[in-house]
Amino acid sequence: MGALKRLIRRFRAKPKPAAAQGTIEILRDGFTVSRPGRESYLLLWAEIETVVAFKLQLPLSDLINLGFHRRGEDDAYYRVHEDMTGFARLVRELNDHLPPADAMWMFRLVQAGHDAEEIVLWRRPVRARVPQRVR
């Protein structure tokens, strides 16, 4: 019975405003992310190695997320989601700074079923090393 009461309270609860979820602020060279009770961070466009999109399955809806992997940081990525203030503007800015390989990525992610896998939106090209001439 406790689970049913929690579910009913969840339906009655007012949704959190986007600012309570966090704020994304676009800058000329990148963007900042701040969340209540967490440390803020800055990501520069030039530092980003990979951008992925994925959705989290929540009890009542899905949540579209973007993950940013910064150069030199192994498996860690920085996550933002659609309920954050500034998410829509960040998606628009991605087209200018790190254009996704698939322009229909969000449509494909929304249409995907529960087994949706992450979509790699952008990956920094690997530069080939030019061998030094040895004398």
Q: How does this structure look, described?
A:
This protein is α+β, with helices and mostly antiparallel strands and about 140 residues long. The chain has helices spanning about 1-10, 20, 85-95, 105-110; strands at about 25, 30-35, 40-45, 50-55, 60-70, 80, 120-125. The strands form 2 sheets. The chain has a 4-stranded antiparallel sheet with strand order 6-5-4-7, covered by helices on one side.
Quickly describe the structure.
The chain is an alpha+beta fold and 135 residues long. Helix content is 24%, strand content 30%.
User: Low-confidence parts lasting 5 or more residues at pLDDT below 50?
Assistant: none
Spell the H/E element sequence.
HHEEEEEEHHE
- Counted by DSSP, the helix tally is 4
Biggest pleated sheet: 4 strands, antiparallel
Q: Into which percentage range does the β-strand content fall?
A: 25-35%
